[in-house]
Design a protein that fits this description.
This protein has about 325 residues and is α/β, with parallel strands linked by helices. Helices cover about 35% and strands about 20% of the residues. It has a domain at about 250-330. It has helices at about 20-25, 60-65, 90-95, 105-110, 115-125, 135-145, 150-155, 165-175, 195-210, 225-230, 245-250, 255-265, 305-310, 325-330, and strands at about 5-15, 35-45, 50-55, 75-80, 85, 100-105, 185, 215-220, 230-235, 240-245, 315-320, 320-325. The strands form 2 sheets. It has an 8-stranded mixed β-sheet with strand order 6-7-8-3-9-10-12-11, sandwiched between helices. Strand 9 (about 230-235) and strand 10 form a beta hairpin. Helix 6 (about 135-145) crosses helix 8. The chain binds iron/sulfur cluster. Iron/sulfur cluster (SF4) binds near residues 303, 307, 312 and 326.
Amino acid sequence: MANANLVEVRGLRKWFPVQRSFIERLVTRQRDFVRAVDGVDFEIRRGEVFGLAGESGSGKTTTGRLILRLIEPTEGKILFQGVDLASLGEEEMRQMRRHMQAIFQDPYASLNPRMKIGDAIGHSLEIFGIAKGQEKRERVLEMMERVGLTPPSILYEKYPHQLSGGQRQRAVIARALILRPDLVVADEPIAMADVSVRALLLELMRRLKEEFNLTYLFITHDLATAKYICNRIGVMYLGKIVEMGPLEKVYRSPLHPYTQALLAAVPVPDPKFRRTQPMPKGEIPSPINPPSGCRFHPRCPYAEPICSEEEPALVEAEADHFVACHLVQR
Ligand code: SF4
């Protein structure tokens, strides 16, 4: 029987060394690290949309890049289809990449400005020796049709600067799907699109997920967007997952004070609405020297002495709903 988990992440850490000037290195021998991802565990189940949400600097994008093995972890394991990615050699990893594709925030930066859209979408078919010439062209035209890049035969010949932002993101989606991957890591895929096309792109991603039997890791800072597409969600804060569970549970009864504050900040289209949830105090602290104990304690309106002394573990508070907070666990 196939493993229900497409991806399993275990004890994942990524620390980036802080670059120092020559003088600073002379003065201090201590090496500092940005603890971008600092011990996270989660699974992405086959066929689901798993969201990773949090403010900028929470570690969600680094986690996505680690899963794609665009960067190497400092510690921990990533199993994809049960295979430890760290055990794969260069060629094996190259073949594995066919099954995991990415959609990044900025479609303009993702596309080669000197390559025609059709060639960019079909490039990986040639790289992996799947199709070339007329066969490649036909596959690309079909994919363009499916992502709404129409008329495909005309748009095939265009360059990225000749398309609208929404069309460019559709091209990036087509390029990600042309290899028929199992996993798509979508990192803020609609953040740079015009407000008018965001809903259309999300709807497209939802439809394509069904048509191509995809699993998504959906990375976003915007809980309103996550609500629209995710089945489960993990909320990250300073390199840790602080809450994780099915979307309806996390949205209806958020347990962690940080999740509560994030959800309270989601705009509500009702002028009579009054916010009751206190917002976190101050700015997100530096990931170089994260606060002791619970990393959220300097900003938490409910912090108690234990919060700065002991780090709360991520535990199952109710079925499939996990939280890392002393108060809730008590
Ligand atoms: Fe707030 Fe303490 Fe819970 Fe952290 S552990 S979220 S500081 S109550």
